[in-house]
């Protein structure tokens, strides 16, 4: 289980996260919702170690990992798919997937068959450059690359951004399948209520760097959630 508690994060003098807390459990999807600029990405970057946290705790499987570098967190089973995907444009699809080997023991340095079972298009495009793929295909590649690391916590920043509806449905299906196995916790950022409604077990709603709503989505009123999403 992931437990990030009382997180305070700054960019320079700007106080971005103000005592924010979020948790994610194996077998469940936790969706972090909110308008643009409220601190959702900053929370994910704090959890994964890409942005330093001023105070608070980030605990993963009873270990406080707040002082660990991103690569050390990756070795503990935390995989991060950032907003914008960050696919290596000049590398082939296969080479992009192989970059996931970096945090694995040598004996595990192979692409799991499951990656191609979940995203068959990747098997057909192994030799193509990452930069030549469509946005949806790049998103599938980015998630596939994260799965190569055999994560126990999968962190996704706006996996539906700029993607055609048919691939959004594919990604939703994959996320639901991964959670249903019970051995992986999934934490994702999303702006669209409909995606969270159909997928999430728990919802955390942010506004101006603070958590304003948190709990099982089945216990929350849609109108209350949407009130914090509209501009």
Describe the protein's architecture and organization:
Helix content is 32%, strand content 27%. The chain has helices at residues 40-48, 70-75, 93-98, 113-118, 120-124, 135-148, 165-180, 193-199, 222-227, and strands at residues 2-11, 14-24, 29-33, 55-60, 63-64, 78-81, 153-157, 185-190, 202-207, 210-216. A six-stranded mixed β-sheet has the order 6-7-8-3-9-10, with helices on both faces. Helix 7 links the parallel strand 7 and strand 8 (185-190). The two termini are 33 Å apart.
Keywords, separated by commas or semicolons:
Rossmann fold, alpha/beta, 231 residues, globular, six-stranded mixed beta sheet
Which of globular, elongated, flat, extended, rod-shaped describes the shape?
Answer: globular
Distance, first to last CA: 33 Å
The structure class reads: alpha/beta
Let me know the largest β-sheet: 6 strands, mixed
Determine the strand fraction and express it as a percent band: 25-35%
Helix content: 25-40%
Q: How many strand units? A: 10
Average residue-wise pLDDT: 94
